[in-house]
Amino acid sequence: MPSDWTYAPAPEARDIVTLRERYGHFVGGEWLEPKETYTTISPATEEPLAEVGQATPEEVAAAVTAARTAFDNGWSEIAPSERAKYMFRIARILQERSREFAVLESLNGGKPIKESRDVDLPLAAAHFFYYAGWADKLEYAFPNQRPRPLGVAGQIIPWNFPLLMLAWKIAPALAAGNTVVLKPAETTPLSALLFCDVLRQAELPPGVVNIVTGDGRTGVEIVKSNGVDKVAFTGSTEVGKSIQRELAGSGKKLTLELGGKAANIIFDDAALDQAVEGIVNGIYFNQGHVCCAGSRLLVQESIYEPVVDKLKRRLTTLRVGDPLDKNTDVGAINSKQQLEKIQELVSSGAEEGAEIYQPPCRLPEKGYWFAPTVFTNVAQSYRIAQEEIFGPVLSILTFRTPEEAVEKANNTPYGLSAGVWSEKGSRILWMAERLRAGVVWANTYNRFDPTSPFGGYKESGFGREGGLHGLEPYLSFE
Ligand code: NAP
Ligand code: MG
Fold it and tell me: Could you give all domains of the chain from N- to C-terminal order, each with its CATH number?
């Protein structure tokens, strides 16, 4: 336990956020009074925050119709530089209102304010800036081809980076000239609803972006809708597979960004203290609710002991607690359901024979919490080495040679990301060539940039988001 005097509480003021009692669906630029509602809460305290809509099939259909009308009545035809203008406005407004959004994101999702403030918000704005720049350059981006928008994009996003995933989805869709119906995750709808204010402030034409809230049933309606030309989904592999089955033969375009079980690989020549920071950032960032989290640590055998010692020592300094405290490193688990999933997988690890370590830390009584956890003595066959936990839980394995590291790293149905730590550039390149992962970070981890494509292999999905690649799923070529 760090001494109590080390950090005094430094809570971020909440009053910058004004919550409405009840939110409807944002359809055709107007708030549609919802037929059914549910309560969204703060996972850190379980306090109710607002009533939000559970969209019915008719409400989803209304949103799709609004998007189609906006597409046909001008959005697909206006000068690309005009589209860019709206997107630059959205980006600037997000920057201006970033503190408000950061507080709301932490309140509704449980992530530490220093992450929503320093990562989610700047990156969300950066995505709009970046794709705004492409809007009037599409013909140069794809020379000798005539890129055309697809029409209405149906977009479904998860709860781990609510506003950032919205930006990843909406920015390329708009830059390419499409209109959008987006559903945020059931547990984190509020930043998407506040974003509707931004759209109005930016004077985006009505119906270009429509937001409907609700649980998986609302997602199913979006996927099934005949008015949707393209589906973009980020979430679990299981739901991704069901969407792919549903769309088979429909001609609708699909991109899937699914789960992961990434290897973070530490060679004996790596700068150990930096590597330990990278391990911590890789798995405890955002409570491990990260599809590309470095959840399997592969350590070269000769440095196993110093790495594990340093890591355990570092874990005792992580501050777990109030997401709105500026000193907090690890916030609340996003939902009761996710907490139960983590607990179940962690007990399977102990039962299968792995050794568990958790630093002493006092968890708040209310809300959903899980202490940062490390497993040693892990066999590749254990569930904690195979399944995505999506929580602050690290499994440590060892290797002797680079060949063995590659084999173990690729021994997973997933293939989203990987990390390599070594002072030797040639070794990093050798590894990167052989790792079956969409992203390979070298001597860093969890770095995101709108200019850089992101996406998976195998059960991690297909299609890329970010960069020039991220425009292709929203275009057809004549
Ligand atoms: P999920 O169920 O796949 O949710 C992702 C999104 O899809 C949410 O908006 C969800 O609505 C919606 N959805 C659920 N069922 C659907 C269906 N049949 N058709 C269309 N849309 C549907 O994932 P989750 O429940 O949030 O989390 C479960 C697991 O998924 C996690 O433990 C983690 O392993 C993985 N996950 C991966 C990522 C990633 O970035 N790759 C992100 C989040 C979760 P609801 O919010 O109502 O469920
Ligand atoms: Mg779900």
Answer: 22-258+460-477 (3.40.605.10), 263-449 (3.40.309.10)
pLDDT in tens, the chain (478 residues): 555 667 889 999 999 999 999 999 999 999 999 999 999 999 999 999 999 999 999 999 999 999 999 999 999 889 999 999 999 999 999 999 999 999 999 999 999 999 999 999 999 999 999 999 999 999 899 989 999 999 999 999 999 999 999 999 999 999 999 999 999 999 999 999 999 999 999 999 999 999 999 999 999 999 999 999 999 999 999 999 999 999 999 999 999 999 999 999 999 999 999 999 999 999 999 999 999 999 999 999 999 999 999 999 999 999 999 999 999 999 999 999 999 999 999 999 999 999 999 999 999 999 999 999 999 999 999 999 999 999 999 999 999 999 999 999 999 999 999 999 999 999 999 999 999 999 999 999 999 999 999 999 999 999 999 999 999 999 999 8
Single pTM value for the model: 0.97
403 is catalytic: no
Return the HEC string of the chain: CCCCCCCCCCECCCCCCCCCCECCEEECCEEECCCCEEEEECCCCCCEEEEEECCCHHHHHHHHHHHHHHHHHHHCCCCHHHHHHHHHHHHHHHHHCHHHHHHHHHHHHCCCHHHHHHHHHHHHHHHHHHHHHHHCCHHHHCCCCCEEECCEEEEECCCCCHHHHHHHHHHHHHHCCCEEEEECCCCCCHHHHHHHHHHHHCCCCCCCEEECCCCHHHHHHHHHCCCCCEEEEECCHHHHHHHHHHHCCCCCEEEEECCCCCEEEECCCCCHHHHHHHHHHHHHHHHHCCCCCCCEEEEEHHHHHHHHHHHHHHHCCCCECCCCECCCCECCCCCHHHHHHHHHHHHHHHHHCCEEECCCCCCCCCCCCCCCEEEECCCCCCHHHHCCCCCCEEEEEEECCHHHHHHHHCCCCCCCEEEEECCCHHHHHHHHHHCCCCEEEECCCCCCCCCCCECCCHHHEECCECCHHHHHHHEEEC
**405 CA to middle of ligand 2, Å?**
33
Residue 291 appears among annotated catalytic residues:
yes
Mutate to test the pocket of ligand 1, among 236, 242, 368 (most ligand atoms within 8 A of CB): 236
Q: Indicate whether residue 215 lines ligand 1 (CB < 6 A).
A: yes
Atom 22 in ligand 1: which residue has the minimum CA distance? 216
